[in-house]
Amino acid sequence: MRAARHRRGVEADACRRLLGSDRALLLRQCKKAIEFANRRAAHSNPRAEVRTKFRDLDQAIDAIRMITEKFTLLLYDEPHDLFAEMLSRKISTGWDAIFLAPWATRETLALPLGEMEPPLHG
Known about the structure:
single chain, mainly alpha
């Protein structure tokens, strides 16, 4: 009886450490995305000054995906490709139409896009 209680305590400690580590990663990776959302999106202020780069937004999305896929694997004991699931469940036919027309010139694509700030207005 005592060994089972000890094992549950060790498992709970491991879960707390795992969750704490992932929470810290998420907060660290999403800090600039949250700043962007708070200043620019939440207040509908396209002129708000932020130091968020597209790279920062990409890192936040990647952190959320990685943590979600990890815990989905732990819960269901099988890997899930969240992007593939999203495509099959949520996105209607024709969603990719916006990507079929060119949106940028070769000069634009040669810019360091990951270092650029999101545009000030739509």
